[in-house]
Design brief:
Helix content is about 25%, strand content about 45%. It is α+β, with helices and mostly antiparallel strands. The N and C termini lie close together (about 10 Å). It is built from eight helices and 22 strands.
């Protein structure tokens, strides 16, 4: 099952083709990933070869006898996977299987050497989903040794050798085909939506067949974003994206190349969904609350005149321009412009607008990967900028109000954004597979995530 699941991860990022313009991500699956699949997937193949075989039939003393045959243990010590350029993957296994016969209730045990070679071709069905198939498979029978015999009868061993050659020449290949067919069924569960927020999702699909070299498979993947059950139309990406050859970790199993356009699209979705908007409400009975008309009235006398009784103040921050992500070497920043409405709660619980400001925040982003999600920490890298756009409390000195607004906004805003960015955006994966030892490399205009794989038993 591991071989099925993990190869499913490697190819499950491929989905139906769509004509829509979407941001690109390039994924390179390196030889190290195939080595890990082979290492841990060896047990799946060993388990698949444990079975009761077709009865051995032979004539003895004028009667046709059916002899039960079991293959309950094996020593398949080698399984390797290698890329076939422009084609797929070559699989090879080698080792021994143990076969048990019951000749007239006398136990006989054999040790048989086998070597299996198979080519796995990668293609797509008409609906655009990927499909794997074994295009060529061959099993070679090696030495056959009798390791245990209770009666010492030798008269039928030539027949048994013929039986072994006939049945073992196709049995490992049929088991491999079964695993691959199981993989194709399982891959149907990989094509779906992954939540970014309560009402937004992301899905991945392959833009064209993979590029396969002797060292890696390169996948050009697009992301489709869905809001309230409908795909959103994204702005055109700033430029085409192609991952340079020498990037990321040379020893990583997988390198994800994440384009500027992908991050632009994620922030565009967050803007459309309203998730980066923020309401901040002052609590009137709190000793440390600064968001009251009495505190603000000390700075703007007209507020005190309109609200002689202290009332709570509400700050409503709404994004008023498309957020801008900037990716430079070793640093990533996020610029967000808000319209900040400052409102007071009147005696009848209605809101009255006091004044409005343009508010600009400039954040430094620290990108990291946790399990299978791309996440970020945000911190202010310069003072919040304010500019008055309208006022219902007359003209006032913004410099005197700025400290109060900054104090009220800074903590809740960074906390809100970090909670949102902490939800993360899932990278293409399948159940029970995590990314381990992730490394993030920030380059001009794109980010590379290099990581290993870990399968959870």
């Amino acid at each position: 099952m591991f071989l099925v699941c993990t190869l499913g991860f490697l190819f499950g990022m491929w989905g139906p083709f769509s004509e829509a313009s979407t941001p690109r991500t390039e994924v390179r699956i390196n030889q190290a990933a195939l080595d890990y699949v082979a290492q841990v997937g060896l047990k799946s193949f060993q388990d698949a070869l444990k079975m009761q075989l077709t009865d051995f039939l032979y004539y003895r003393r004028g009667h046709l006898q059916r002899i039960p045959v079991f293959m309950l243990e094996n020593e398949i010590s080698h399984l390797s996977l290698k890329f076939i350029p422009n084609y797929g993957i070559h699989l090879s296994t080698a080792g021994h299987v143990g076969m048990t016969f019951f000749l007239e209730k006398n136990l006989q045990k054999l040790r048989v050497g086998i070597t299996t070679e198979a080519d796995i071709v990668i293609s797509q069905v008409t609906i655009g989903t990927p499909v794997l198939g074994i295009s060529l498979c061959n099993t070679t029978i090696g030495e056959v040794n009798l390791t245990y015999s209770e009666d010492g009868s030798k008269e039928i061993w030539n027949s048994i050798r013929g039986y072994i050659k006939a049945i073992l020449s196709h049995k490992p290949c049929s088991k491999l085909s079964f695993l691959v067919e199981g993989l194709n069924v399982y891959m149907g569960t990989l094509i779906g939506l992954h939540a970014i927020g309560p009402e937004s999702q992301i899905s991945y699909s392959l833009t064209h067949p993979p590029t396969i070299t002797k060292d890696y498979i390169s996948l050009d993947i697009k992301a489709t974003f869905v809001l309230l059950g409908k795909p959103i139309v994204l702005p055109p990406p700033p430029s085409s994206f192609s991952l340079p050859q020498q990037v990321g970790s040379s020893t990583a199993m997988i390198n994800f190349g994440l384009s500027q356009g992908l991050f632009d699209a994620i922030l565009f979705l967050m803007q459309k969904s309203g998730s980066i908007n923020l309401d901040i409400t002052g609590q009137l009975n709190s000793k440390d609350n600064q968001l009251t008309t009495s505190v603000l009235g000390n700075l703007i006398p007209e507020v005190l005149r309109q609200f002689p009784t202290s009332m709570p103040i509400v700050l409503k921050a709404r994004v008023n321009a498309e957020p801008v992500v900037t990716i430079h070497n070793n640093q990533m920043s996020l610029w967000i412009s808000y319209l900040l409405d400052v409102l007071a709660v009147s005696s009848n619980s209605a809101f009255k607008s006091l004044f409005s400001l343009d508010m600009v925040v400039d954040l430094a982003l620290n990108i990291f990967v946790s399990e299978v999600k791309l996440q970020a920490d945000a911190s202010l890298q310069k003072d919040i900028e304010f500019n008055v756009t309208s006022s219902n409390v007359g003209v006032f000195d913004l410099l005197e109000v700025k400290a109060l607004l900054t104090s009220a906004v800074k903590g809740p805003l960074t906390k809100h954004l970090n909670a949102l960015f902490g939800l993360g955006v899932i990278l293409p994966t399948i159940a029970k597979v995590n990314f381990i030892s992730p490394q993030v490399f920030v380059h001009e205009g794109y980010i590379v995530v290099s990581c290993g794989l870990h399968f959870q038993n």
